[in-house]
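This is your field. Have a critical look at both lines of this record:
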Amino acid sequence: MAKIYYIGGSPCAGKSTVAEILSQKYDLYYFKVDDFLDSYTKSGALKGYPICKKTVELNAEQIWMRDPSLQCREEFQFYEEIFEYIVSDLNQISCKNGIITEGAAYVPNLIKQLGIPSSRYLSITPTKEFQISHFRKRTFVPYVLEGCRDMEQAFSNWMGRDVLFAEEVRKQCRENKYRSITNDGSISVDELVHLTAAHFGLLNHTEN
């Protein structure tokens, strides 16, 4: 079975950028969980998983106008529901140099249940200020919130959910003795890539 390096955390922290660079630099297979979330959600809904069903059925107004703490709790429940699909897909990948995979779905408690050692998992989360400033620059945000009666409140709820999510991820990392990096914008991409590569023990590997 191929070596798998897991990058968890929360949105807008630099996870995908780091994973893409490392995949090219060390010839690793890059598995981006977000690319499969729609299919995982539909599969979970068909199985009757409650949060997957709700996700499929709710419109933007119903999703984003809810209290951020409720959204956060259900986000963790959602990842629990779809985790089996992620693990199944990873197990079907064959790559001699290994796999690098990233996504908020890699919640520390779920990673611990898989028995993943600390040397194969890293969490990257943003500070609240860094998260919000970067999300406001993303062109897809209005499309995600389309249909909400108050898009600014919906955006605030969304950001509130992700701030709470990041806090819980960092807490779970401490409890499970996994390394966590908090990105406040002062860490350059090159530095973040180096820190991640060093944590995974990739620095001594031959680069392309």
User: Anything to note?
Assistant: Strands lie at 4-9, 29-32, 99-102, 121-126, 179-183. The radius of gyration is 17 Å. The first helix runs from residue 15 to 25.
